[in-house]
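I'm curious: can you give me some protein's one-letter sequence along with its backbone structure tokens because I've never seen that pairing?
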Amino acid sequence: MADDARQKDAPRRPALDDPVESSALPSSFPCPFCGTDDSDPFATFGGQASTAQYYCNACRTVFEAVRWR
């Protein structure tokens, strides 16, 4: 019963795409090293299934980002 009350009081969030059905990656992601948004998808999967690899064109670094939020 307490779970029902928490669910009713919780703020509503917009529905996210189903991670299994959606394979689209963001076209760019902020680089954690230099902070620029000038990055391109490098690989669909990184070291974990929930990460993707991006290449930063500014500092020429490959980094991983979480695929789903």
Remarks:
- The first helix runs from residue 2 to 9.
- Residues 16-21 have pLDDT under 50 and may be disordered.
- Residues 13 and 58 are 34 Å apart (CA to CA).
